[in-house]
Amino acid sequence: MDGDDTLARSIHDLGLATWFGGSLMGAVGLNGASAAVHKPKDRIRVSNAGWARWTPVNLAAIGAYVVGGAALTWSNRDRLRAQQGVGQVSLVKTGVSALALAATAYSRYLGQKIMDADEVRVEDAVTPNEETPPEVAKAQRQLKVLQWAIPAHVGALIIISSKMGEQQKPQSMVAGLARRLLPNAA
Q: Most distant CA pair in the chain: distance in Å?
Protein backbone atom coordinates (compact mmCIF):
# COMPACT_ATOMS: atom_id res chain seq x y z
CA MET A 1 0.00 0.00 0.00
CA ASP A 2 1.10 3.55 -0.68
CA GLY A 3 0.51 4.85 2.81
CA ASP A 4 -2.38 5.79 5.01
CA ASP A 5 -5.74 5.31 3.29
CA THR A 6 -7.86 6.66 6.15
CA LEU A 7 -9.30 9.54 4.11
CA ALA A 8 -10.07 7.40 1.05
CA ARG A 9 -11.55 4.61 3.17
CA SER A 10 -13.64 7.11 5.16
CA ILE A 11 -15.01 8.77 2.03
CA HIS A 12 -15.77 5.35 0.52
CA ASP A 13 -17.45 3.99 3.66
CA LEU A 14 -19.43 7.15 4.47
CA GLY A 15 -20.66 7.25 0.87
CA LEU A 16 -21.79 3.63 1.05
CA ALA A 17 -23.42 4.10 4.44
CA THR A 18 -25.33 7.18 3.27
CA TRP A 19 -26.43 5.51 0.03
CA PHE A 20 -27.59 2.41 1.92
CA GLY A 21 -29.28 4.24 4.78
CA GLY A 22 -31.02 6.75 2.55
CA SER A 23 -32.36 4.14 0.17
CA LEU A 24 -33.62 1.97 3.02
CA MET A 25 -35.17 4.92 4.83
CA GLY A 26 -36.84 5.99 1.59
CA ALA A 27 -38.36 2.56 1.05
CA VAL A 28 -39.49 2.03 4.63
CA GLY A 29 -40.08 5.57 5.85
CA LEU A 30 -40.83 7.97 3.03
CA ASN A 31 -42.60 5.68 0.58
CA GLY A 32 -44.42 3.83 3.34
CA ALA A 33 -45.44 6.99 5.18
CA SER A 34 -46.95 8.50 2.05
CA ALA A 35 -49.97 6.21 2.58
CA ALA A 36 -50.74 8.15 5.78
CA VAL A 37 -51.37 11.36 3.84
CA HIS A 38 -55.14 11.88 3.97
CA LYS A 39 -55.79 13.01 0.38
CA PRO A 40 -54.79 10.38 -2.23
CA LYS A 41 -53.72 13.05 -4.73
CA ASP A 42 -51.34 14.63 -2.16
CA ARG A 43 -49.49 11.37 -1.47
CA ILE A 44 -47.31 11.64 -4.56
CA ARG A 45 -46.55 15.31 -3.88
CA VAL A 46 -45.37 14.57 -0.34
CA SER A 47 -43.22 11.65 -1.42
CA ASN A 48 -41.82 13.60 -4.37
CA ALA A 49 -40.86 16.50 -2.12
CA GLY A 50 -38.90 14.15 0.13
CA TRP A 51 -37.13 12.44 -2.76
CA ALA A 52 -36.33 15.80 -4.39
CA ARG A 53 -34.62 16.90 -1.17
CA TRP A 54 -32.75 13.61 -0.87
CA THR A 55 -31.49 13.37 -4.47
CA PRO A 56 -28.54 15.81 -4.14
CA VAL A 57 -27.40 14.14 -0.92
CA ASN A 58 -27.67 10.71 -2.54
CA LEU A 59 -25.68 11.91 -5.55
CA ALA A 60 -22.96 13.25 -3.26
CA ALA A 61 -22.90 9.94 -1.33
CA ILE A 62 -22.56 7.91 -4.52
CA GLY A 63 -19.84 10.26 -5.73
CA ALA A 64 -17.97 9.85 -2.43
CA TYR A 65 -18.22 6.07 -2.73
CA VAL A 66 -16.89 6.11 -6.30
CA VAL A 67 -14.05 8.56 -5.55
CA GLY A 68 -13.06 6.76 -2.35
CA GLY A 69 -13.24 3.38 -4.08
CA ALA A 70 -11.09 4.57 -6.98
CA ALA A 71 -8.49 5.92 -4.54
CA LEU A 72 -8.46 2.62 -2.63
CA THR A 73 -8.14 0.64 -5.85
CA TRP A 74 -5.20 2.79 -6.91
CA SER A 75 -3.57 2.47 -3.51
CA ASN A 76 -4.00 -1.32 -3.54
CA ARG A 77 -3.08 -1.86 -7.21
CA ASP A 78 -0.06 -3.99 -6.36
CA ARG A 79 -2.11 -6.22 -4.06
CA LEU A 80 -4.73 -6.57 -6.81
CA ARG A 81 -2.09 -8.07 -9.06
CA ALA A 82 -0.07 -10.03 -6.52
CA GLN A 83 -2.43 -11.44 -3.88
CA GLN A 84 -4.61 -14.28 -5.07
CA GLY A 85 -8.31 -13.62 -4.62
CA VAL A 86 -8.11 -9.83 -4.35
CA GLY A 87 -8.63 -9.22 -8.06
CA GLN A 88 -11.62 -11.57 -8.18
CA VAL A 89 -13.33 -9.89 -5.23
CA SER A 90 -12.60 -6.50 -6.78
CA LEU A 91 -14.27 -7.59 -10.03
CA VAL A 92 -17.33 -8.82 -8.13
CA LYS A 93 -17.49 -5.49 -6.30
CA THR A 94 -17.25 -3.61 -9.59
CA GLY A 95 -20.12 -5.67 -11.02
CA VAL A 96 -22.34 -5.18 -7.99
CA SER A 97 -21.48 -1.46 -8.02
CA ALA A 98 -22.59 -1.26 -11.65
CA LEU A 99 -25.88 -2.98 -10.77
CA ALA A 100 -26.48 -0.66 -7.81
CA LEU A 101 -25.70 2.41 -9.90
CA ALA A 102 -27.96 1.23 -12.73
CA ALA A 103 -30.82 0.49 -10.32
CA THR A 104 -30.38 3.90 -8.68
CA ALA A 105 -30.28 5.74 -12.02
CA TYR A 106 -33.34 3.90 -13.33
CA SER A 107 -35.14 4.54 -10.05
CA ARG A 108 -34.43 8.24 -10.44
CA TYR A 109 -35.75 8.13 -14.02
CA LEU A 110 -38.95 6.43 -12.88
CA GLY A 111 -39.27 8.82 -9.97
CA GLN A 112 -39.05 11.75 -12.34
CA LYS A 113 -41.87 10.27 -14.44
CA ILE A 114 -44.01 10.12 -11.32
CA MET A 115 -42.96 13.65 -10.25
CA ASP A 116 -43.96 14.98 -13.66
CA ALA A 117 -47.45 13.46 -13.23
CA ASP A 118 -47.86 15.51 -10.03
CA GLU A 119 -51.37 15.33 -8.58
CA VAL A 120 -52.52 11.80 -9.31
CA ARG A 121 -54.43 9.59 -6.91
CA VAL A 122 -52.40 6.69 -5.47
CA GLU A 123 -52.41 4.39 -2.47
CA ASP A 124 -48.84 5.37 -1.58
CA ALA A 125 -45.65 6.43 -3.35
CA VAL A 126 -45.17 3.05 -5.03
CA THR A 127 -48.69 1.61 -5.05
CA PRO A 128 -51.26 2.74 -7.60
CA ASN A 129 -55.00 2.67 -7.10
CA GLU A 130 -57.82 2.33 -9.64
CA GLU A 131 -57.61 6.06 -10.49
CA THR A 132 -53.85 6.13 -11.14
CA PRO A 133 -52.99 6.74 -14.81
CA PRO A 134 -51.49 3.59 -16.44
CA GLU A 135 -48.06 5.12 -17.15
CA VAL A 136 -47.72 6.29 -13.55
CA ALA A 137 -48.95 2.95 -12.22
CA LYS A 138 -46.34 1.13 -14.33
CA ALA A 139 -43.56 3.37 -12.99
CA GLN A 140 -44.82 2.83 -9.43
CA ARG A 141 -44.81 -0.96 -9.79
CA GLN A 142 -41.23 -0.86 -11.08
CA LEU A 143 -40.17 1.45 -8.26
CA LYS A 144 -41.78 -0.91 -5.75
CA VAL A 145 -39.17 -3.50 -6.78
CA LEU A 146 -36.26 -1.10 -7.12
CA GLN A 147 -36.82 0.42 -3.67
CA TRP A 148 -35.66 -2.93 -2.24
CA ALA A 149 -33.13 -3.81 -4.95
CA ILE A 150 -31.05 -0.70 -4.27
CA PRO A 151 -30.41 -1.26 -0.54
CA ALA A 152 -29.91 -4.98 -1.25
CA HIS A 153 -27.17 -4.21 -3.78
CA VAL A 154 -25.59 -1.50 -1.64
CA GLY A 155 -25.75 -3.80 1.39
CA ALA A 156 -23.92 -6.41 -0.68
CA LEU A 157 -21.25 -3.78 -1.41
CA ILE A 158 -20.80 -3.22 2.32
CA ILE A 159 -20.33 -6.97 2.81
CA ILE A 160 -17.87 -7.19 -0.10
CA SER A 161 -15.95 -4.23 1.34
CA SER A 162 -15.73 -6.10 4.65
CA LYS A 163 -14.32 -9.12 2.79
CA MET A 164 -11.75 -6.86 1.14
CA GLY A 165 -10.76 -5.50 4.56
CA GLU A 166 -10.25 -9.07 5.78
CA GLN A 167 -8.00 -9.72 2.78
CA GLN A 168 -5.67 -7.02 4.10
CA LYS A 169 -4.91 -8.86 7.32
CA PRO A 170 -1.28 -10.00 7.33
CA GLN A 171 -2.17 -13.72 7.44
CA SER A 172 -4.52 -13.32 4.48
CA MET A 173 -1.92 -11.39 2.52
CA VAL A 174 0.76 -14.00 3.15
CA ALA A 175 -1.58 -16.87 2.26
CA GLY A 176 -2.80 -15.09 -0.90
CA LEU A 177 0.72 -14.34 -2.05
CA ALA A 178 1.80 -17.91 -1.32
CA ARG A 179 -1.09 -19.32 -3.38
CA ARG A 180 -0.17 -16.98 -6.24
CA LEU A 181 3.53 -17.87 -6.15
CA LEU A 182 3.20 -21.56 -5.21
CA PRO A 183 -0.18 -22.70 -6.61
CA ASN A 184 0.44 -26.39 -5.78
CA ALA A 185 1.41 -25.69 -2.16
CA ALA A 186 -2.07 -24.66 -1.03
A: 69
Model pLDDT for residues 151-185, shown as the tens digit of each residue: 999 999 999 999 998 888 777 777 777 777 777 75
The model carries a pTM of 0.87
Q: Give dist(CA 124, CA 111) in Å, integer.
A: 13
How far apart are alpha carbons 114 and 121 in whole angstroms? Answer: 11
- SS3 assignment for the chain: CCCCCHHHHHHHHHHHHHHHHHHHHHHHHHHHHHHHCCCHHHHHHHHHHHHHHHHHHHHHHHHHHHHHHHHHHHHCHHHHHHCCCHHHHHHHHHHHHHHHHHHHHHHHHHHHHHHHHCCCCEEECCEECCCCCHHHHHHHHHHHHHHHHHHHHHHHHHHHHHHHHHCCCHHHHHHHHHHHHCCCCC
